[in-house]
Amino acid sequence: MQIYKVGGAVRDRLLGKPVTDIDWVVVGATTEEMLAKGFRPVGADFPVFLHPKSGEEYALARTERKNGRGYGGFIFHASPDVTLEEDLIRRDLTINAMAEDDQQNLTDPYHGQRDLEARLLRHVSPAFAEDPLRVLRVARFAARYAELGFTVAPETLELMRHLSESGELEALTAERSWKEIARALMEDQPQVFIEVLRECGALKVLMPEVDALFGVPQPEAHHPEIDTGVHTLSVLEQAALHKQPLTVRWACLLHDLGKGLTPEEEWPRHIAHEHKGLKLIKAVNERFKAPKDCQELALLVGKYHTHGHRALELKASTLLELLQSFDVYRRPQRFEEFIAACEMDARGRKGLEQRSYPQADYLRGAATAARSVAVQPLLEKGFKGPELGEAIKGERLKALKAYKEAASV
């Protein structure tokens, strides 16, 4: 039995980056031997075990053979005679196909270290094209390591293009796709993920609504970058720079989908794009079964982001409707995330990345004013039921009018 550290732990050590998760591969062992040493089996598809003390994953060396569509269409073979090299060749990228023994002696049969130095994301073997999930994984790695200058090797991009055209991407489950998308959006340069998907044709398959934004112009006076797709990437980039959570990043990606529906004769204006985009945002949410908080914020940002930009001009009654829509009294965090998405949208414009966004504090102040209305005095006056609701609404409207007057002085 020989045990090797493999994959990301080896890659990140060689890059000088922090190593978080460690995966191990065991060569020359049987399931029975692993169980005898106290390892606990997990996973129904192939032999993976948890270490009895550390809890880390140890997998028996295995080979795989394609026998169906999609990510799950494989037959795995694990036995003591599977070599380390045979196990490594089934991996996606050369930089993920290296192994180390306990003395840090490197096994690198597919030249991963050379590609690390060349800053290349290159597939290990033609079998790369058998797993459509790898298109998303490579795009995610491109986003993760963009700051180090990594790019996708041309021949790997060609395989990704072939996969995108083959129909295999459509066999991916929503759960697997979302897991990769969510991880990619939380990288330091998530816009690179979208760029790579677009370059290999996968964006058109997975998110045609986002792909349709490229080449759609906006008024230069408001959007110096003009192109709606370029703007979307910039908004995503700003969200990452400002360390926004996944909910905000997802909303940033989808906020302008309605502009992709504008007839060319109406360009560069996009009248009512907020309302038009809602059905598209809903479709993307459902396609990937995004978490509920991501779905809700994306729809709300899509519908109300121009309200956010025009916050200082809004009537008190419109402000109140906006606050009610977000249920700021019980869910203040969601409104805070809306404000963040609006600010990222404003900053995601060429040359305006550093411009202040006074609307943010103004909206926070409006929410505070509305929340400050006390319910108890109204109860003491005898209001109840629907009448109490109307009375509260009236008092909140008064509070917002007073807030607007004070803010305009």
Key terms:
Hydrophobic Seed Protein; single chain; 409 residues; seven-stranded mixed beta sheet; two-stranded antiparallel ribbon; elongated; Beta Polymerase, domain 2
How would you summarize the topology of this molecule?
Blueprint: E1 2-6, H1 8-15, E2 23-27, H2 31-36, E3 40-42, E4 48-50, E5 57-60, E6 62-66, E7 74-78, H3 84-89, E8 99-100, E9 106-107, H4 112-118, E10 120-121, H5 133-144, E11 151-152, H6 154-166, H7 174-185, H8 190-199, H9 202-206, H10 208-211, H11 228-241, H12 246-254, H13 273-287, H14 292-309, H15 316-326, H16 332-347, H17 359-371, H18 376-380, H19 385-408
Parallel strand pairs: 2-5, 10-11
Antiparallel strand pairs: 1-2, 1-8, 3-4, 4-5, 6-7, 8-9
Helix pairs in contact: 5-7, 5-8, 8-11, 11-12, 11-16, 12-14, 12-16, 13-14, 14-16, 15-19, 16-17, 17-19
Describe the structure.
The protein has 409 residues and is of the alpha+beta class. It has four domains: 117 residues, Beta Polymerase, domain 2 (2-Layer Sandwich), CATH 3.30.460; 88 residues, Orthogonal Bundle (Hydrophobic Seed Protein), CATH 1.10.110.30; 125 residues, no CATH class; 37 residues. It is built from 19 helices and eleven strands. The strands form three sheets. The protein has a seven-stranded mixed sheet. Helix 12 crosses helix 14 and helix 16 packs antiparallel against helix 17. The protein is elongated and about 80 Å long. The model has no long low-confidence stretch (mean pLDDT 94).
The gyration radius over C-alpha positions equals: 26 Å
Order of helices and strands: EHEHEEEEEHEEHEHEHHHHHHHHHHHHHH
| Total domain units | 4
Spans of at least 5 consecutive residues whose pLDDT stays below 50 are: none
Which percent range describes the beta-strand content? Answer: 5-15%
Q: How are the strands of the biggest sheet laid out side by side?
A: 3-4-5-2-1-8-9
Going by helix content, strand content and strand pairing, the class is: alpha+beta
What is the 3D form?
elongated
Count of DSSP strands: 11
| Helical content band | 40-55%
Put simply, the count of helices is 19
Mean pLDDT: 94
Biggest sheet features? 7 strands, mixed
Report, as a whole number of angstroms, the end-to-end distance. Answer: 78 Å
